[in-house]
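Researcher: We are triaging several targets before committing to wet-lab work. For this one, the compound of interest is zinc ion. I'm pasting the protein sequence and the ligand SMILES. What I need is the predicted three-dimensional arrangement of the protein with the ligand bound, expressed as structure tokens, so it can go straight into our comparison scripts without reformatting.
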Amino acid sequence: MRYEPVIGMEVHVELNTQSKMFCACRADIFGAAPNTHVCPVCLGMPGVLPVINQKAVEYTIMLGQALNCEIQLHNVFARKNYFYPDLPKGYQISQYELPLCLNGYVDVQPEGSPEPRRIRIRRVHLEEDTGKLTHVGDYSLVDLNRAGVPLVEIVTEADIHSAEEAYLYVSKLRQIVRYLGISTGDMEKGAMRCEVNLSLKNAATGEWGTKVEIKNLNSFRSVRNAIEYEVQRQEKVLAEGGAVEQVTMGWDENRQVTFVQRVKEGDVGYRYFPEPDLPPLYLEASWVEQIRAGLPELPDAKLARYTTDYGLTDKEAAVLAEDRATAEYFEAVVQAAADFPGVTPKQVSNWISGELFRLLSESGLEIGQVNIAPAHLAALIALVNANTINQTAAKKTFKVMFETGRAPKDIVRELGLEQISDAGQLEQLVRQVIADNPEAVERYRSGQEKVLGFLVGQVMRASRGKANPQLVGDLLKKELQTG
Ligand SMILES: [Zn+2]
């Protein structure tokens, strides 16, 4: 019997607004001493009133638009009632019947699949985060810094069919929130948290199996591994004639297994009702449109533009569009290249994904910290194109540019890196190398043409890396034929 995994995801993303969702406490709580970012509102004291954070609403609209959702101009905050020690009010302010965003989608591109796969987004709503418990022996500590931090929840339809698709979906989601600048998306710091609903569909009968929830997946890797593990576990249960239980599971990172957290007994019953302390939210259509107009160009659009306008391959384009800072640097260099005829976007792409990335990873710097002016990189490429310097000298120059931010022209002059393209000057070196390497010359003349590379290398060395390698090759060939 064959089964197809049917997976829906719920992803929570913390917004990086300055203040919390319903009070003026600072929302950047990571690393702060416990219970230092709190006030009567987020502590849930009696008699206090929440105030909606406009920035959080704006960020949620941005996300909804980036995820191709309909933005609901009329929406309502609702109370989700449940008891838990990290929830001081005894309820969470969330959205239920009328969320901010509905009916969107995200396209992901699995490796080897000809078409992208569309994952529909059911809803995106805004709520507040809970506090945090730390369990120590037989008691627990509570930190309410996180209580009230703005949180969006993004819920998909059950359109995901493999661990890889789930992985691609959460990666894309993080890429989008980072492009929008509305969240750090750092899973290891809890700014993005994933839950998976998974069941197996019988491929023959089309019948859906029992749905199992896996909560608190805190890394991309754990999303992928937990789904793979759970699919295999359920397949085994069914193959042995058993039944999958409707349970909520956790993921044990150390043992790489899912484990039952609690057995579900029907609907938990959150007794949702409209939040009486907040008026319904009526958004002006003009404001929503203004937000749309201010959206940055998103990864998919960049990818398409880089391949069609700049002639990059899908892979090259994806590397540059991966994060917004890299894409913006690339575009700045391409723009500066307008002053240097002949410098192509492809060459710019090669320098960024090659030498620049190499130096960044060596130095541990981020692209935002690079102090090579875009015009300087374009100028360096122009020097190579004009045969003023060769590739080796260009790399040397680039390293100094990376370290000092100076102009390539000055560095080339100072280090004496100009390429020797004077045939007369090179002929001498070529003759010398031929005279010094009779054995190699003999092998070349007997038909081993690969030896030419060795001889070119010798001339390059004699010129201390400054000879024009193309010209050296030509001169060598000529000399070896006539000699
Ligand atoms: Zn507060």
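Researcher: Any quick observations?
Model: The mean pLDDT is 92.
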